[in-house]
Amino acid sequence: MPTSxxxxxxxxxxxxxxxxxxxAQLAAQPAAPVPGTRIPVIIRPASVxxxxxxxxxxxxxxxxxxxxxxxxxxxRLKVINPKxxxxxxxxxxxxHSAEEFIAPAFTMxxxxxxxxxxxxxxxxxxxxxxxxxEEDTSGRNDLLYPACSGGQKPGLPASIPNCRDxxxxxxxxxxxPVPNHPEIVHPHNLFQNxxxxxxxxxxxxxxxxxxxxxxxxxxxxxxxVVVVTACSSPSVVNAKEPKELLMEVYG
Length: 251
Ligand SMILES: [Zn+2]
What we know:
- The structure is a single chain.
- By secondary structure, this protein is α+β, with helices and mostly antiparallel strands.
- It has one domain (about 55-250).
- Helices cover about 10% and strands about 25% of the residues.
- It has helices spanning about 10-15, 25, 105-110, 165-175; strands at about 55-60, 65-70, 75-80, 90-95, 120-125, 130-135, 190, 215-220, 225-230, 245-250.
- The protein has a 6-stranded antiparallel sheet.
- The longest helix is centred in the C-terminal third of the chain and has 11 residues, at about 165-175.
- The radius of gyration is 21 Å and the shape is globular.
- The N and C termini lie far apart (about 65 Å).
- Bound molecules: zinc ion.
- The site of zinc ion has 7 residues, from loops.
- Zinc ion binds near residues 148, 232 and 233.
């Protein structure tokens, strides 16, 4: 039985069952968090309104492709659905590290909702709010689905571009590093309509409700690199016809 007051090494922990810990060592363990304790997500108010900002860039996203752009803190991104019924996979990375990115599981659980909420944050895998949704004219943006990929089953045949590859290509095009594990970078799916349809948790994929001209506006809470891919899938998720999207940057 170990008698030292020093923390047990990993090797010692592996070779001594928890029963080997002394009462003193157990008493020295940090207190477990009180269940339900949550660090509040602070959404910093805007220092400048959209009406005071100018459109700095207009970036068309051709169908079945992606585009990336750097947003400085308090700049805004408008993602427009010019023809309607088209999904845009939204990715955003902290500008200082490709390993911190918005993660829908964090957004859903901290906002306690499976859809994006106006006024609420889009949270990273480190729990930081990187963006806030300020406007949303369609009101339906999915957080459950991963990006389409060439290897996903059921997925897209290799002959069709996919959002995971397009996200990486968009990052390379603006000289931002591709994250080490792009397969775990899941999108916030703008305009995707995949409701949970009953209390058993069944999900249905439906055509987007987004009409031509519908849009979302996001404000950068930190400096972030954003990528939007116009989802390539020819399935019902894009009303069976992949189409283009448009990004505008305001600052
Ligand atoms: Zn896709």
